[in-house]
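To the team - shikimate-3-phosphate complex, inputs and output below.
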Amino acid sequence: MSQPNPSTKPLPLAAGGTLRGTVQVPGDKSISHRALLFGAISEGVTRIEGLLPAEDPLSTAACLRAMGVGVSEIRAGEPVTVEGVGLDGFQEPADVLDCGNSGTTMRLMLGLLAGRVDRHFVLTGDGSLRGRPMRRVGGPLAEMGAVIHGRKGGNFAPLAVLGQPLRGTTIHTPVASAQVKSAILLAALTAAGPTTVIEPAQSRDHSERMLRAFGAQLEVGGPGLTQVTLTPGASLRGQDVVVPGDISSAAFWLVAAAITPGAQLTVQNVGLNPSRTGILEVLEQMGARITVLNSRDVAGEPVGDLQVSHGPLQAFEIGGDLIPRLVDEIPVLAVAACCAEGTSRIRDAEELRVKETDRLAVMARQLGAMGARIEEFEDGLAITGSSPLHGAVVDSETDHRVAMSLAVAAGIATGDSLLHRPEAAAVSYPGFWDDLARLRQPT
Ligand code: S3P
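Output:
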């Protein structure tokens, strides 16, 4: 566990009060990365509305600019334009590409760069990213002919990519990961012959939807939509992309309103892609009061407004194929479990150990400091929600989703809390602390 940096200020989080009002969460992180990346390899200009102006997409944009792609300045509320260089137009960057904290940037970039023949790329990131496994991408890409070197047999960044001609093949991925699937599909765009990716369970399908909209030839099938085949040859054309609000950011407000006495919130313009809505199913299973309003389709993704209010909650049990559909929401679901009647169980979630932090260990440690009855297992957590949480000194341990989950927990604790490293939230939700201050009301 890394120590809090004394140069960043801990944030006092007051207990008590409630939450009321309307909030518009920032753009979906997964869709934002993809809009930038797919725009970059297309012919012509891509115009993106609602792009997430947070640290992770800024990392993707910076890497693209370093390879000669024109990406306009990213400012909240303003459209972003990407001047595509075509499928093989990346210039060799003169320096290392810095992916910051962003696993999506590094993994999708590996797929994009593997087939750029006779060019050399080096990718690195912050301390967290340099400790995250990359062979899960490098291994499948090597089956297509890619050459990627890195620490520990190519598993850890810095990674060097030596662009090679690639061949199409069939790849069974060992984990249901949209980052792995998307990296393979991006490499497949310039491979010789079609490539099929077969996942153990369906992961989020934003790449499939958006690649098709940009003109790629792609078929999805298999049991549970776990099989995707991409046939190369089509050139991609720049598009207008509208990015919906991120359900993974909305999740903090959904849980906060469900557990905070007197709370009533409306979260507007939330992406409701079925490969992402596991959180809604679990909250429903818990008896949470959630209504979907104004369901609509925006640029190929389902969108709606969510109304949620406080009520009694029951424990939940989750595992299996549901996990990839709510993988980023498990930290905040752990907070919800602390306020539910009975023991909640999270299984088959070992992937959380290789996210921005080991989220099973970090949530057990931090919620434990607030008095939660939480037991940690190799693949999950068991949380008994009987006694109320108390205020405590807690730490995001540099993880954005942990920072925001702990803020939700602190709101319903019996005393005030102090959060170390709150600035981590800016990785996916730079306005989170302002939104929290605005929505908090006296009871
Ligand atoms: C993402 C996929 C998920 C998710 C991450 C974003 C994506 O990771 O946790 O925050 O944009 O493809 P995995 O694909 O590794 O499960």
